[in-house]
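Backbones bend. We report:
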Amino acid sequence: MKVEDKLLSSTFERKLREVNLIEMHYHLKKGGVRTVIENSVEALAAYGNFDSLNIGIIAGLGADHLDTRRHLKDSGGKNIGISYIDFPELGYSDRIFPNREIFLEQANRLKDKLLQVLQVEKYSPSNPLVLHIHNFSLGKNAVASAAVKLFTQESCERKYPVWILYHIHDFAENSRPDRLYALQHCTGREDKEFASFIMYPNERNVFYLVLNSSDYENVLELGISPKRVYLIPNSVNVEFFSSVPITKREKFKKQLVERIEEYAQSNGYEFDGSRKILLSPLRIMLRKNNLESILLLEVFNRINGDQYGLVITLDADSPNHILYSKKLKEFIKENSLPVVIGVGEELISKDYSRVRRGERVEAFNLVDLLHISDAIITTSVLEGFGFMYVEGLLANKLVVGRKIPYVCDSFEANGMRLDHLYTRIAIDVKWVSGGARRIVREYFKKINDLRKAYGLGISSLKKIERELRKKKFLKKKDRICIDFSDLSLEMQEEVFLKIRNDEKIFSEFLGLNPKIKQTAKLIKSKNIGLINYNKRVVEEKYSLNAMAKRLVNAIAIGNSNYRKNIRGRRIDNSKLIKKFLDMKVVKLLY
């Protein structure tokens, strides 16, 4: 489903006298949601079409971690106030209660505290409070999700001047059985209907915000009225990513390269600073499909001469991803690959600043790292917005790698040219030890493990094989192939070594994947015309100014409609669970 980006249209242009907005999340640790909140606050402060902004930040941890000075700059004389509230009860919790009654008692107490903190009585029907809640359907705290549901119900019944902007970043139904289990068992027994009831509030004062057309479709499938769903893509801080890097000066460029070398040596990597850097600005995560970026490095070095090294900025930070990272690092070091992981934590500041001690830079910023890189590589297979497609462009870097169709559809609809990206890397199943039979067995186990976790019946081996042949296997040049990202890490490693060590297989690989060969030529030529064209689209459509327009228009529409009885259907996420169990969606990696 392609969804029009209507809120940026001039026909929707609105001006508000006053905006009362609360941003709410489990925590404000460094990460994607915090970036979204920071950009939203800064966008509204700098570019919002209103006279007065009252904004609050509520989080289980770290509400005051945002850089207020940055958010308030260039506010154009508007009256802006920001407050911060730590709310520990919103933090992560997987507590299971003895029964529903006790669970709801706890949720009601939290709802009452939320009402007390928000002071909804001080607002008016024509100038209400907007509560912008991030990812509370994900199952990180079932009590908090239920408290929000109870809050929306009471607000409707008592006609409080408040409405909710319910922001979906991720779905628990999408390969997160632990999160869905936490929601479905929070009352001490399996209760699927109750889980969907608290995950997706459907009162008239709840409006949903999604990042892409696929998520828009998912929310409609749940039973939410399209009149209460907004498509608002994330924004990028154009000013920051277009700023002059300190590494333009040769001595600072040399410092950063030397620091990367030092980091690599102290962590057991073989990384030569004389190599050109290909940057993968991703965290090590299963869904980031990181080994594929190492495969691209190998292919580019074979085609263009052995001249590149790969820098993956951030290491894993959660248990299942840490194990994946450990295996990746072992593979990199055993095979003496010119790859280094995790320089971001060590050398790059956690915000937009730099730290200098005289002529030594203690902490560079991301723009500095982008500047010394030859190109940006992305291999992720699952994203909400896809920052990696746009940030590097602003630093005049070519972005190459994997296209996620449901993410890139929106970028292309807004004018970006992304035909140079590939949607799959074809791998002959014979290059996998055990071939098609092993792949079928592993998918049989993977899908049925997920089905068991979701309380569904077992699928037969024959059905799994039939689905694989229909939806994942493809015939190419008389070979049965599968996408590289559809393999397990162990299979990916086997295939990588065969491509690396067997000249015949390498040649066959290029024959199956002509776009990879074209990409190697593209990063050599750099294609400034393509970079500049896409950069202009990003500056116009994904800037903080564009975000401010979308948000103000959404708030104006919500202010007008939150008391109207816009009905949806009864909430049911069973179709969504089955959708994410489809063979097209499931991967062995995660």
Observations:
- The domain at 6-235+543-580 is CATH 3.40.50 (Rossmann fold).
- Residues 468 and 583 are 7 Å apart (CA to CA).
